[in-house]
């Protein structure tokens, strides 16, 4: 496409994307390999540009080196993006690529190109936030319904129950080039205290008004397009929603999540903590599910290990083991309180023995906590969690 | 900004842009030099990544090399772009940079970073076309009025004369992140023949309807934001407007420009063409301006030299000398007819002795003409121009 | 409310409507009686104005008579309508009134006031047509779903099946003062022939495109707000939809309904036609529902009587007995073809033994047929129906 | 049009309005007379309906009498209103009628029909308020510019000066059936005290922000369409704007006008007040216009007579003589302060010797003041005016 004019390129890009859509998974993998190899920079150019830079490393010699090194694949993808509706197609193309990479990891360099471009294209500055409610177009609501995986919805009535009452809010980010496709969305309940269980939020009767709410609970955050993996929106969305809610409802004082703990059961079973193995086995037996006394007996142990899990369990690189914890603590939130049992749905039992946790977004603390977390891995804890740790 | 979280970055970006706005020109130049030098990649990293690539030049070793070579300046600019309204501010920052470069060309590497990012951000896929008319918000119309430099407007009445009649059209590209700022716009007159003079188009009474028009005349194309220099929109805009007009008014058969020839007077004066010097002097005298006979006498010579100018005068790299010609011929248009005198405004007299030219956009020929132009510099000529050349 | 200022009235109107909303059915009936009597014109004024008119019946003496006769109730309703959101509340108030009138017919004069005002307020000139599709706000779609009574919907999936395919259309009228409340809507299927049965339209797979459709089938028309009884929208809506579809899809040549015959079973049972009684009894037995041969045997008789029903059965005032026939024939449509069995749903069996009919809207004939119908009750018939009559 | 169907009527209405548009003033007058006479109710019907009513004056016998008396002209106008864009055409038709009535007052009964319908169609419940600013479509701004007659604008720059600064507001009412045609608009300046002169408001530099304003000054209210004469919007608009401003800018405490006194010069000249004749003559001489001392000398006398004018000068029916005073006092405002000289424009000198007045809208007092004004003509006065009266 290099030789042809801008507008002609647009037509060629359209045809190329249409042709791509006809390929099966195997052909797509072949296509990806072809692009990876066929649109590589010329090693001779790179070597020459490097030699010049090496002789005199300066801003002036860097420009030609950068130009020599930048993969022509990126230019190709930018040109494909001129076709009408191309952006969403390219996002979905990368989802195909991620799937193909599971079989053929050597495609990763092409993924790096996608990731690099998408970070530019889906820059926060280009996103717009929108409230989602019962007057949102049905086509968007249907997407929301399908994309909700944290606490899946059972249909339109369930969606309406979460969207429509006065004490509920949905917000989503949209990008102008991907139209009515939500990129990420968050579900919020407005309450009068910090909830410990998800079921009442999903099913209980609502209050008629939101004015007396003191607490905004972020109880589900969903990324939607697999092809945007690694492009981070969540932090911006939470911050923006906090700002909008604070402006709309001055009585709101507390901004908190009610979050799953998807890595808890696996960590417990791993026996990494010496006291975990027995508890893991007991929880697996499941007697506590139907026996209130048994649950009451286990509760202090679960809380204690949960507290250790969130504050002590780390990956090799020192990050929190729990992926949701990584996200919220990285945003500057504090681990506020462990809640057990907080979610009795099948998935939550399997992944976390029903454990949930609140992360607190305290606007005045976010920045300092975030910095401490980034600098030396310090995890901010709330009073309830600290009390458990101190037991 | 590297260590801090996404949302905190947004606040820092906002403060940084606010602080930048307070700087004077000298301080801005200092700021640019600081960024150019302070956000450079580490030569040691580059050398190490190059060594690995050099040993095994592959897609896999290219990724780390690319990451090492990519100037942190680009990451910085992307982060600044997370602030509300940042995109336009960054575009204007680059306009400042271009001004500073005139004094200090060593700032060019930073400009390369801006150019690289803007090519991505202002991708055609993100632009939307809009018709501009008398129901457009006044704030946008005012910008249009100020940005029109090809045939400047004298005020609101003049604007209205160009916008509002049934046989006139304005179209502009907008980008979602720069709001109501037109990036480029084109002015169109719907006529029944190919015009040779600009004055009647700017001032003559209009026809009541557009249905019987056979010809769409693109008589003014204006880029607006200096900071977007080098990001090309014009070709896309013309193609899109041709498509929209053809769909709206099936009677339209001819799509043509009425364009200035801004380099003609200088070329003539340069004496590059042996017959030019005398003519240049005669035209400079200006007797023809008030003497119809004199003008008639000069006309054949002007036309002959104009034809040679458009088809023969080249830059060192072989491109047409005339910048407007480069644009339209590069888009695949044909040089249709030279018109003298076509524009008696001061600027047009000074730059082109009043010469104008029509470029013809013939949809069926555009692609082939564009390719021939790119491949070997072939300039497509229309019958009237060919006739002059053959005289 | 007469003595107070405009803006104060607005607040009083708001309070009055809020107070009304708290009343139970009995209190509402009392309120209606009170208004009917308390806001009556003064007989003395009327007599005086009449005397002046009677002495000199002219445009000049009519004005005071009109003013004396116009019930202050209308002024009251106009003033109530200044409150925010009042229009829909007044429409619903009239629905309450209609319910109350079933017990107390003496409230009819108040209903005449509502009807008079609504005819003015809901003038065609104030309505806007909108296409309803899958990008319509869910809140509107939910209303549509609830208001559909001709062929009720089973839920969101059913709604989507009717709205979303390329060969389906919904259109509705909205009034600016009643917001997102559809006043009437029509459901259209785009087909390649005139359908005789409703089931395939409601359930069969759809064609991917609408471009090759030759026939637009109006298969369901629903008025929504009971309080707008007697304010006619249907004729305007059909005409407007015909115009929009003809403009969008030039291949459409036939505009036809597939309509119920809600009065057929009752008419047949009435024995008004000497041959009807036996057929009515046989159809009631219902053996034909499961016995194809039996149905085939009865078919000619049903068709013959149906043809007589649509062309001969009249009310005392000479109008067609069938209410749906009155509507479409009054609009200038022709009774095209009787279809039996066309609808095997319970309601259609009960009211019409499953009979359906197509009314043809032939743009070139509509006016003449309408006039003939209004002038002397002439019913236009299509060839298929004429053939049945001629058997 | 009575016999034809709804949709056919729409076409006939369209033709009728198009035909009307071709008539000259004389033909229009003829047309009006024809309608007045040709669409009159039947006296025999009226007499019969009256006889029934007279025998038993009840809600039941009133309905047929009302139907007999209602001029068929109103039905005709309602039917014309079904044509696309008809509402504005009918408003303009009434403007023609008002012009024709100046020559032929016998057309008044037809005007009563227009007035009656427009009161219904342009009910407050159907209007929407919109803020007018620099992002408003130019077509609307141009209308605003042309309709401003209280303090005429000199062009776009003048308009911008009134619209665009942070401490200025424009609001207008629109009706859905008349599209982008403003029906009435008000111009507001946000200040820190109650202004006594108009010139600084129209020309002085603006403050950058509106947050510190304590006072909203309504300094120009314009009705736009002559055909809507007698349909009152102003009161509603002021009240709505007060509500919107109070919500947006909580620091606003004072809502006040700066208004002309269009009847002052004539009243002074009339000599109705024994001390007025001399002052009127002196003011007419105009020496005070260029002589500061002379103005200072006259000021107490002007203020004293102005105070008497606003509180004492009445029409035969007891209403305030000044038409602007009638409007604001009728709305419940108080006559706050007389300002002399407040407006040195030609018109203001001619009509009011440059006098202006502030009317104060004190939300807590409006209702009581309005009632007292309506009940017994009591005029609420502010402290400054009271002080002048007490001198």
UniProtKB/TrEMBL annotation, chains A, B, C, D:
Pfam families named among the record's database cross-references: MCD, MCD_N
Top-level taxon: Bacteria
Domain Malonyl-CoA decarboxylase C-terminal: 125-362
InterPro entries listed in its UniProt record: Malonyl_CoA_deC (IPR038917), Malonyl_CoA_deC_C (IPR007956), MCD_N (IPR035372)
Malonyl-CoA decarboxylase N-terminal domain mapped to chain residues: 39-122
Name this polypeptide is given: Malonyl-CoA decarboxylase
């Amino acid at each position: 496409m290099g030789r042809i004019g801008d507008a002609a390129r647009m037509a060629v890009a359209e045809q190329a994307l249409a042709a791509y859509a006809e390929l099966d998974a195997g052909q797509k993998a072949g296509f990806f390999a072809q692009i990876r190899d066929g649109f590589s920079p010329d090693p001779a150019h790179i070597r020459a540009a490097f030699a010049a830079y090496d002789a005199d490393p300066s801003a002036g010699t860097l420009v030609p080196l950068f130009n020599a090194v930048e993969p022509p694949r990126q230019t190709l993808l930018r040109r494909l993006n001129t076709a009408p509706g191309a952006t969403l197609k390219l996002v979905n193309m990368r989802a195909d690529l991620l799937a193909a990479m599971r079989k053929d990891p050597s495609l990763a360099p092409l993924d790096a190109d996608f990731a690099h471009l998408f970070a530019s294209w889906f820059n926060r500055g280009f996103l717009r936030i929108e409230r989602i409610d019962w007057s949102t177009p049905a086509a968007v609501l249907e997407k929301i319904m399908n994309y909700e995986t944290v606490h899946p919805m059972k249909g339109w009535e369930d969606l309406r129950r979460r969207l429509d009452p006065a004490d509920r809010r949905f917000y989503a980010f949209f990008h102008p080039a991907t139209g009515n496709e939500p990129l990420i969305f968050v579900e919020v309940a407005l309450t009068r205290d910090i909830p410990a269980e998800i079921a009442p939020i999903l099913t209980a009767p609502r209050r008629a008004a939101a004015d007396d709410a003191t607490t905004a609970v972020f109880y589900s955050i969903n990324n939607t397009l697999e092809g945007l993996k690694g492009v981070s929106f969540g932090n911006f969305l939470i911050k923006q929603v906090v700002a909008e809610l604070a402006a709309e409802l001055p009585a709101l004082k507390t901004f908190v999540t009610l979050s799953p703990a998807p890595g808890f059961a696996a960590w417990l079973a791993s026996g990494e903590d010496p006291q975990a193995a027995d508890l893991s086995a007991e929880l697996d037996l499941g007697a506590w599910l139907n026996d209130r006394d048994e649950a009451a007996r286990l509760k202090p142990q679960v809380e204690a290990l949960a507290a250790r899990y969130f504050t002590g369990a780390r990956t090799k690189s020192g990050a929190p083991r729990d992926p949701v914890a990584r996200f919220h603590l990285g945003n500057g939130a504090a681990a506020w309180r462990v809640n057990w049992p907080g979610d009795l749905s099948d998935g939550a039992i399997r992944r976390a023995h029903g454990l949930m946790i609140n992360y607190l977004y305290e606007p005045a603390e976010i920045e300092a906590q975030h910095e401490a977390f980034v600098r030396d891995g310090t995890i901010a804890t709330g009073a309830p969690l600290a009390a458990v740790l101190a037991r």
